[in-house]
Amino acid sequence: MALFELHSRNLSQEQVAHTHDFHQLILATCGVTELSMEGRGERVTARRGCLIPSSRHHEYQGDGSNRTLVLDVPVAQLAMLEKGSEIERLFDKPRFFSVPPALNQLTHALASQLEQCPGLQNEIAILLLRALTMYLHDARPEAVEQLGQHCISERLDLARLDAWLDQHLADEIRVEQLAELCALSPGHFHTCFRELTGVTPLAYVQRRRLEHARTLVRHSTLSLGHVAMLVGFRDQGSFSRAYRRYFEISPSSDR
Predict the structure, then answer these.
(1) pLDDT digits (tens, 9 = 90+) for 126-143
(2) Is residue 114 located within the same domain as residue 38?
(3) For this UniProt entry, which residues form the secretion signal (predicted)?
């Protein structure tokens, strides 16, 4: 069950004035929205966010080309969270705040994940609130960047990926499949994977194939053609060439 409502929206050019019985966080990834609370007006952009406490009257009007993350935080739900009191402090008053580059990058990444996997809105919402709490309360902008890296490492569970790869080495393996296992978009997965491991996902798959092949070459009596098939190579020739490039020795000599 969703604790939060999180949406990536285009706020239209129609002027809206209302109040609601939940807190609201507004972060833009692009475009501009004019927003005023209790007589104070500012522009919500990629560099400027907004926190709206429940029951506070506000008005807004988008430019029609913005892309904006809107997070609704039911007040009663905060008591269910481990750090609910810290999050409640974020909404102790209406405020606009500067968005540091690390938070902007995290917002972009999480907005992309939300579009790919809307079922993860609870997890994404909590990450956004944790990041904002670190930035506004702890006055440590670097903590936001650390949280983003921690999020990446948690989602890219290499042990889980390795176990899946080992069961599918004989099959065609696509980046889209690996990204889906981590609930990330293919583009974001590729970037995060390279940052974490230093290699591209497909280079990592190739390395996994060859390391498994070496175990079979050295410790089994299977033919090299059979080994090539088991680890996903189309023929023995392409397998032998890849093996020699990686290990600087042919599979027959290694055997």
Answers:
(1) 888 888 887 776 545 454
(2) yes
(3) none
